[in-house]
Amino acid sequence: MRRLWAAAAAGLVLMMAGCAQQTAPTGDALYGHASERYFPLATSMHEVIMAVHPGEWTVEKGGYGAIGVSCRTATGDSGYSLNYERSVTIDDLDAEAAARAAESAFAELGVVAQVTVRGSGDAEEHVVVAEDELVGRAVVTIRPAQGEVRVTARTECAPGDAHDLTAMVMGGGDRIDAEAARRLPATEGPESVPQFYFPTDGPVYFDEKGAPVEPQPVVSEAPAVPYGD
User: Fold this and answer.
1) Higher-pLDDT residue of 177, 187
2) For the chain, which end, N or C, has fewer CB atoms within 10 Å of the first or last residue's CB respectively?
3) φ, ψ for residue 215 (rounded to 5)?
4) From CA 115, how far away is CA 211, in angstroms rounded?
5) In which element (H, E) is residue 220 found?
């Protein structure tokens, strides 16, 4: 399955590169291309964070991974990328063991990771960096003095309008409603499944004050994809 995800992601990158000089995808085509990038990213990074800590992680604001982020493609055109960010605080964090776990998880995905240690004392960090078509640029930063682990991944910039993509993901057609952010999960744990569609009548993960709903709604399977193939 991992190799299939990798092959699909690699094929998509090649397809995007070949279309760099053509009109950027819109509508169903944009949504379809983005979903084909998102699911391998989310599935792969879930394996990485669970290898480091098989518990609940915080989804950083704006970092769920399914929302389009504006960027510039290699040809200078407007495009979108997908941004994934998770964090956790672990009592008695073993930084070396956590770094080895992340490195091994990337290796299982067929991705080579580099591990470095920088700083000392309270400023010591163990950093695991992996880059390829599957996860874009992924970084695991481990701070033993604080017991903190932060994981980020960002895909390469691809042709397409980030705002239009986000509006479709949030079930808003051509607009994004003011309550959209409340429908994005605040945590990711062992039972979490990747979602790429958050309709206006879907579960609410944040209350009106912006605090995570406890317990978080559980989605046993990803909602149906409303656009594309």
Assistant:
1) 187
2) N
3) -75, 160
4) 35
5) none
d(CA 125, CA 120): 8
pTM above threshold 0.70: yes
Check: CB of residue 25 under 8 Å from CB of residue 159.
Answer: yes
Q: Mapped to the 3 state alphabet, what secondary structure does 36-48 carry?
A: HHHHHHHHHHHHH
- In this prediction, residue 13 carries a pLDDT of 47
Asked whether 52 and 151 are in contact (CB, 8 A), the reply is yes
For residue 191, give the 3-state DSSP assignment: coil
Phi, psi of 206 (to 5 degrees): -125, 140
Mean pLDDT (whole number) for 182-210:
94
User: What token pair was written down for 106?
Assistant: 């990337």
Task: Give the DSSP letter of residue 221.
Answer: S
CB 38 within 8 A of CB 131: no
Closest by CA to 196, choosing from 42, 5, 15, 6, is 42
Residue 229 — pLDDT band, cuts 50, 70, 90? low
pLDDT tens-place string over residues 13-48: 444 444 444 589 999 999 999 999 999 999 999 999
Q: List the structure tokens of 6.
A: 């990798």
The candidate with the shortest Cα–Cα distance to 172, out of 198, 194, 206, is 198
d(CA 225, CA 228): 8
